Amino acid sequence: MELLNNPRTTQVIAEVVLALVLLVFLNTNGVEGLKALASDSFEYRAISCRAHGASLKDFGGVGDGITSNTKAFQAAIDNLTQYASDGGSQLFVPPGKWLTGSFNLTSHFTLYLHKDAVLLASQDENEWPVIDPLPSYGRGRDAAGGRFVSLIFGINLTDVVITGDNGTIDGQGALWWEKFHKGQLKYTRPYLIEIMYSENVQISNLTLLNSPSWNIHPVYSSNIIVQGVTILAPVTSPNTDGINPDSCTNTRIEDCYIVSGDDCVAVKSGWDEYGIAYGMPTKQLVIRRLTCISPFSAVIALGSEMSGGIQDVRAEDIVAINSESGVRIKTAVGRGGFVKDIYVRGMTMKTMKWAFWMTGNYGSHADNNYDPNAIPVIQNINYHDMVAENVTMAARLEGIPGYPFTGICISNVTIELASKAKKVPWNCTDVAGISSSVVPQPCELLPDQGPEKRTACNFPEDSLPIDNVQVQMCTYNRKYF
Ligand SMILES: *[C@@H]1O[C@H](CO)[C@@H](O)[C@H](O)[C@H]1NC(C)=O
Ligand SMILES: *[C@@H]1O[C@H](CO)[C@@H](O)[C@H](O)[C@H]1NC(C)=O
Ligand SMILES: *[C@@H]1O[C@H](CO)[C@@H](O)[C@H](O)[C@H]1NC(C)=O
Ligand SMILES: *[C@@H]1O[C@H](CO)[C@@H](O)[C@H](O)[C@H]1NC(C)=O
Ligand SMILES: *[C@@H]1O[C@H](CO)[C@@H](O)[C@H](O)[C@H]1NC(C)=O
Ligand SMILES: *[C@@H]1O[C@H](CO)[C@@H](O)[C@H](O)[C@H]1NC(C)=O
Ligand SMILES: *[C@@H]1O[C@H](CO)[C@@H](O)[C@H](O)[C@H]1NC(C)=O
Ligand SMILES: *[C@@H]1O[C@H](CO)[C@@H](O)[C@H](O)[C@H]1NC(C)=O
């Protein structure tokens, strides 16, 4: 009795019992069991948590990198659809290499990739259904007809999350790039993730590699968060745009790192007469804390397909390295539409061809039926608080003769030119606006207002609805592994 009352003895007994239990557990469950015990559940942040869950393995998934999992993914999601109105569901993709063709998402659903899970996109065209061109484009980008549906596709959905602890989606794009270069494509190349006609979408904490074409394409959708995504593709790969919000309202793109063969973020809204007829703008877009390397394209491109209009874009805390241009506005006669109320501040650029580029002479038409009287309106474009070094040319600003781009405001910008810089750092035609505290001295079309107007260019003080969306901490329980 004396002995058991001694706290030291009690502790020793407890430790011995614990060790015995652990030994028995190890004998019956092995090291795997111990690992599972250690990760009884895990947590992640999402716009909504789910009541039900399953693992891809429950549906016959095989993560050997050779077996196709297209049917397993679709069977899993079709099964989990039943929980849409009962707390929603999450599909766990365990460690492994999961070869798959395209599959479709459902509402109130989370796709979660373990950090050692790699989705390998099939290179077999039969694994990719062909869908119609986007109505606002009238045709596919690579070929006149339809387009291969994206690897992860969602249509008419609400409340969808694609996330993980930095799991990987590998598009295995090399074969597609080769077919593109050789003109062997019957249909437009697939994207990695496309979400159409949907709302309340989160794409976060993932690594996307080698997409056949664009990486993330939300289109005709609203309330979209893209956060903490790493996107990597060879800088020479064709059309591997990072994130393309297209005819979307209320989008937030933040904390992304993108190295690609095309624009890191390309804001779009349809093409020529098709985009004008569809008439759906991209508006209320926030881009922040983006790091981009895009030697042949832009960090943020607006257009060239902007025929439904682009309005209220707010970008800040952007780092551009070895990129062709910082912000680029691309449009053409025949596009119609508008690009207005664009605000960019706090951008650091290193090794750039042009810090700023805008052109009304981009060409690139869907077909010859575009309306030559459809003149795009470009107005209220604000750039401020920026530094750039090793820049070949400060700016190339080319409006449309007779229809100038107006309300351009550039302030507190210091551009250090490269030793092999162009002799004329600014080339401006058919543009109007002001500047203040900009080095080197801007062109005459952007007259200097003096240093007291250093804060002249606006950045909105209010916040957009997408900034008020809260993420919650969700738990994934071991019983679903
Ligand atoms: C799919 O859902 C049903 C419930 O409707 C369930 O009984 C079944 O086990 C599920 N299928 C798989 C493979 O888990
Ligand atoms: C996904 O949805 C699209 C559009 O409805 C359809 O064409 C395609 O066949 C679906 N994919 C699968 C794997 O069912
Ligand atoms: C999506 O919704 C539209 C409009 O309601 C409908 O015409 C279309 O068939 C739906 N597509 C799918 C695949 O659910
Ligand atoms: C994202 O993934 C990283 C790396 O695995 C993990 O540490 C982090 O908690 C995840 N973040 C969120 C918000 O889930
Ligand atoms: C995710 O993985 C990529 C590629 O390995 C890496 O560069 C990035 O830092 C990782 N992100 C996080 C949050 O761990
Ligand atoms: C400056 O830019 C040129 C390309 O225009 C590049 O070759 C050179 O390495 C850069 N220099 C520095 C110091 O980054
Ligand atoms: C000018 O821009 C720099 C960043 O490039 C910023 O640190 C500074 O506060 C800005 N100055 C004013 C007066 O806004
Ligand atoms: C300036 O831009 C105009 C229109 O793009 C072009 O025609 C002209 O050659 C450029 N001038 C210089 C000096 O680069």
From TrEMBL:
- Indicate whether Glycoprotein appears among the record's keywords: no
The organism's place on the tree of life at top rank: Eukaryota
Q: Where are the transmembrane segments?
A: 12-31
- Indicate where this protein resides in the cell: Secreted, Cell wall
Q: Name one Pfam family in it.
A: Glyco_hydro_28
Entry's Gene3D superfamilies? Answer: Single-stranded right-handed beta-helix, Pectin lyase-like
**Transmembrane keyword on record:** yes
InterPro entries reported in the protein's UniProt record: GH28_Enzymes, Glyco_hydro_28, Pectin_lyas_fold, Pectin_lyase_fold/virulence
Give one GO term, molecular function aspect: polygalacturonase activity
Primary localization class, coarse? secreted
GO biological process, any: carbohydrate metabolic process
Sorted alphabetically, the keyword list is: Cell wall, Glycosidase, Hydrolase, Membrane, Secreted, Transmembrane, Transmembrane helix
Q: Which family does it belong to?
A: Belongs to the glycosyl hydrolase 28 family.
Question: What is the official name of this protein in its record?
Answer: Uncharacterized protein
Q: Which organism is it from?
A: Carpinus fangiana
